[in-house]
Every structure is written in C-alpha cells, then in structure tokens.
Amino acid sequence: MTRVVRFAAASVVIACAVLALKTGAWWLTGSVALLADALESVVNVAAAAAALVAVRYSALPPDANHPYGHTKAEYFSAVLEGALIIVAAVAILHEAWGAWLRPHAPEQATAGLLVSAAATGINGAWSWLLFRQGRRSRSPALLADARHLLADVVTSAGVLVGVTGVALTGLLWLDPLLAALTALNILWSGSKLMRESVGGLMDEAVEPDLLGRIRHAVSTSAEGAIEAHDLRTRHAGRLTFIEFHLVVPGQMTVDAAHAICDRIEAALKAEIEGATITIHVEPEGKAKHHGVLVL
C-alpha cells in the first residue's frame, strides 16, 4: 500500500469520526447551522471514499488499454466531490429556509459547541497533513480532499461563532442565516473544485510558472541543438507530459542527437517530478525560428 493510499484510507476513518461528532453536536442543540455543518461532513465521507478508490486505481501500472497509465482517475474523484458539495449546499439551503420560517433557540448550546469545536480541530489538523502529502505526491484527489476540509474548517468556525451569538443574544434568525451562508460558501468551493478537475480531464496546459521552468530547462541543457518548437504540456494526475520538436544540425549523427535528448530529459526530470517526455528530432531545415532557442 502506497503512502497516498494510506492517507486516503485514513481520510475515510477521520471523515466518519468527524461526521459522528458533528451529528452529535446537532442532536444536542437542534441548531440548523450545526445541521448544515453535519450535512457537509456527509459529503466528506462520500468524497473520502471516492478518493480512496481513485488513488488505488490511479496507482495501477500502464497496460495495453491504458498505455499512459491510470493517473487521470483521481480527477474523476475530484469532480465527484465537487458535485456532492453542490448537492449538500442545496440540502442546507432547504433546511435553512425551513428554520427561517420556524426559528427556534438551540438547546444545550455549550455541550454542542464543544463537540463541534473538537470536530473542527480534527478537520483542521488533517487538512494540513493532506495538503503536505498531496503536494508532495502531486495527487489531485488528496489535494481536493484537503481543500474541501479547509473550506469545512472555515465554515465550521463561522458556525461556532454564530451559534454562540444566537445563544448569547437570543437572535434566532442568526441560526438559519448562518446555515445559508454556509451553503453559499461550500457551493463556491465546490464549483471551483469542479472547474479545476475538469481542466485536468480536458488536458489543460501546465501553469505559466511551470511552463517557464520547462522552457528554461530545455534551453540550458540542449547544447548542440538549434531550437525547440511546438512545445505541448499537460497534467495527468501526478504525471506531467511534455512534448516538443528539437531541431539539430542536418549533419549531426543519430548518436549525437540522442545524447542531446538524454541530457534534456535528465534536466527536465530533475526539475519536475513525474515528468514524461517525448522529443521529436528534426533537421535544421525544419526550424521555425520561434519557440525555445538553445542558449
């Protein structure tokens, strides 16, 4: 079992524990804002389970049907998580509207708030760990889970402050208002998550900063060549695919051109973990005089 899979499995366990705590907080208080917080945790459980399936599948080696590997499976998990977040937001808005029409004061507010605070603390710590591991392993599924948990932490903190305000001031309309704001917040985070994940499925180019690093690595390691053009890049989970045409002098031997390609590949792999590189060598008559010029 890889480290990424272990983190994904642990996320399922932690999501279930946090759901139990937040459900208990809602049961103690009857607060619709805490119910909204608990409903979001239902999404956390489903999303963590989907992420576990995705990271296990994405770790499979390439085969005849999937020669580029299975790493894009993690994007499907992230898209599903974004969709579940949107469903949860709609359910929360429905509950908030009912509570707005029939407001009631929370019961056992102190006990409920303490339980909810404990759940929020667990989510915050785990979100931080997931961010570290997700960036280290370049796992879209773990990073999606981490972003969702971070949004949950921010939401939960606002709910805790708001429910405390309801208990202290007796302003019952604050409870459904907080629930509605919670729904809008997670709706925004869900839509952003889906956009990023769909971008991965649609083979969006790498971000400008990484593209600059790729161009610099090619330019400084291709001594003996003339230029590189038609550079194309894309992410597929934790892999980064890089393709370009390398123009060399027409009289250069195959061995010499191959040595340049090896040097470029080594530079790119040292710069970018998980780089998969394809280089098409062309004679100088194919030069386009644009793209990456060799320094």
What does this structure look like?
This protein is an alpha+beta fold and 295 residues long. It has two domains: 199 residues, Cation efflux protein transmembrane domain (Alpha-lytic protease prodomain-like, Up-down Bundle); 86 residues, Alpha-Beta Plaits. The chain is 68% helix and 11% strand. It contains eight helices and four strands; from the N terminus they run H-H-H-H-H-H-H-E-E-H-E-E. Strand 1 and strand 2 form a beta hairpin. Helix 2 runs parallel beside helix 6 and helix 7 runs antiparallel to helix 8. The model has no long low-confidence stretch (mean pLDDT 81).
Task: Identify the notable features of this structure and list them briefly.
transmembrane helix, Cation diffusion facilitator family transporter, 295 residues, CDF_Transporter, single chain, alpha+beta, Alpha-Beta Plaits, 4-stranded mixed β-sheet, transport, 2 domains, Alpha-lytic protease prodomain-like, Cation_efflux_CTD
